[in-house]
Amino acid sequence: ITVLFRPIDKIISVIESYPKGIAGFKRFADLMDTEPDIVDSPSARKVSDLRGDIVFDKVNFAYSDDRPILRDITLSVKAGETIALVGPSGAGKTTICSLLPRFYEIDSGAITIDGIDIRDMTQDSLRSQIGIVQQDVFMFGTSIRDNIAYGRLGATDEEIMDAARSAQFDSVIAQLPEGLDTMIGERGVKLSGGQKQRLAIARIFLKNPPILILDEATSALDTETEMQIQRALSALSEGRTTLVIAHRLATIRNADRIAVVADGRIVEEGAHDVLVAKAGAYARLHNAQFGAWAAE
Ligand code: ATP
């Protein structure tokens, strides 16, 4: 295991997921290829145990020079708070999230966590403070144990089972022929999409980062699985600063705050009720996505 994991030690926090590109998902491998572009500054320091106070201060960003994507993004998320990013497809929600682990370098402005500019942090340590859950989960063709322990190398079986329980994945393990030793992938069992997601959540419970980025699934799972994942995710976000790219009404309503992203800007921000009363961009979006208020 040591031999297997050593080379990927460094990318542990990134491999869970990867931001989407233009044509759907961007593989994390592609992202890793872009990584050497960004080099730690010589004075970068290691951070740990961040509280998770996040500030985007007048952030501008473009993937290429000719087309600005994010314009003047200013956003604060207090430690422990959950903010839902909503808005039309292509508005920039994923891009906002991918700037936090510094997958890309911003063009101007600043992003700070606990008052420290993320450019002054080593990328390894920054990413150790962030957990990401996306639809597509990276799996190794090894045991269930190793796949969960990937969240924190060297975790004991007890810690792994605790994380599995928190992620509602323990019932899956209980049904597997060899429990934690069960191999997955070509030589072993095939996990369903919902099971993989819970495994990914277990990894993050184990990693225990103060900051969470959730890219909520749009694809339909059966109701039971859906409920288990929702429960696991809300337990996971408890006490962590959470940025969620939200598609479900329940998630949006339960968030402490909603930021409406349109054409690379934040056009509205506030709690659900406040934004509804405002009858502006959020109300329109909500109507279009979830039907008229009267119909609820
Ligand atoms: P969705 O809800 O569809 O996921 P989104 O709000 O998350 O959309 P982004 O994925 O952040 O939007 O995309 C914002 C803009 O940036 C889009 O115009 C998209 O085409 C562009 N874009 C996204 N990723 C890349 C990339 N890797 N290279 C170039 N352009 C990109």
Describe the structure.
It comes from Pelagibacterium flavum. Belongs to the ABC transporter superfamily. It is a multi-pass membrane protein. This is ABC transporter ATP-binding protein/permease. With 296 residues, the chain is of the alpha/beta class. 33% of the residues lie in helices and 22% in strands. The strands form three sheets. Strands 8-9-10-5-11-12 form a six-stranded mixed sheet, with helices on both faces. β3 and β4 form a beta hairpin. α6 (157-166) crosses α8 and α8 packs parallel to α9. The termini are far apart. Adenosine-5'-triphosphate is lined by residues 20-22, 26, 63, 69, 87, 89-95.
Bound molecules: adenosine-5'-triphosphate
Query: How far apart are the termini?
Result: 52 Å
Mean pLDDT: 84
Strand content: 15-25%
General form: globular
Helix count from the secondary structure assignment: 12
Low-confidence stretches: 1-34
| Helix/strand structural class | alpha/beta
Largest sheet: 6 strands, mixed
How are the strands of the biggest sheet laid out side by side?
8-9-10-5-11-12
Cα gyration radius (Å): 19 Å
What's the total number of strands? 12
As a percent range, the share of helical residues equals: 25-40%
Order of helices and strands: HEEHEEEHEEHEHHHHEHEHEEHH
Subcellular location: Cell membrane
Domain ABC transporter: 54-288
GO molecular function, one term: ATP binding
Protein name: ABC transporter ATP-binding protein/permease
